Amino acid sequence: MTVVIADTSPLNYLILIGEVDLLAxxxxxxxxxxxxxxxxxxxxxxxxxxxxxxRLPSWIEIRPTPVSSEQFDLLDDGERAxxxxxxxxxxxxxxxxxxxxxxxxxxxxxxxxxxxxxxLRAAGVRNMTDLPTALARLGATNFRSSNILIERLLAEDDExxxxxxxx
Length: 167
Known about the structure:
Blueprint: E1 3-6, H1 8-16, H2 22-27, E2 30-33, H3 34-41, H4 47-54, E3 60-63, H5 77-87, E4 93-96, H6 100-108, E5 113-114, H7 116-125, H8 131-139, H9 147-163
Parallel strand pairs: 1-4, 2-3, 4-5
Helix pairs in contact: 3-5, 7-9
C-alpha cells in the first residue's frame, strides 16, 4: 500500500477550494509532518485553513519529523519535513507537493510526487469532482500554474467526457 504524505501547499489549496475531502476518497489516509500541522494552524494561515487544521479529520495522521542534520538550501521547514518523512517510510510513498524546488529535491531522492493539479486531475478521472469547476475555484486563489497546463487538463477532461460511453 502506498503511503501518502502531504506538504502544506496542496492541503492549503484543496481546503480553500472546498475539495480537501478528495484526498480521503483517493488515498484513504494522508500523513503530515508535525511541522506542517503547525504551518496550517499558524496565525498567517487563511482562517478556513486554520479552522480545518484545528479539527483534523480522522484520515489525516500527524507524524513526527524525522531527525536529520541534512541541509535543504531552497526548501522551507514544511517541505523539508515532508521529504524527510517520505524518505523514512518503508512502503512505497507518494508525496503531495507543489513547489518546484521541493519537487526537484524529491525527484533527486527518487520520491514520487504529485501536486494540487494532479490530485484534482485524478479526482476528475474518477468522477469525484467536476474538474473545470475545481480549476476555476483554484484560479480564484493565489495558486500559480502555467495556462498551458490548465488548458491541457481541461482539454483532457473534455475528451474523456466526450468519449465516455452513454448509458
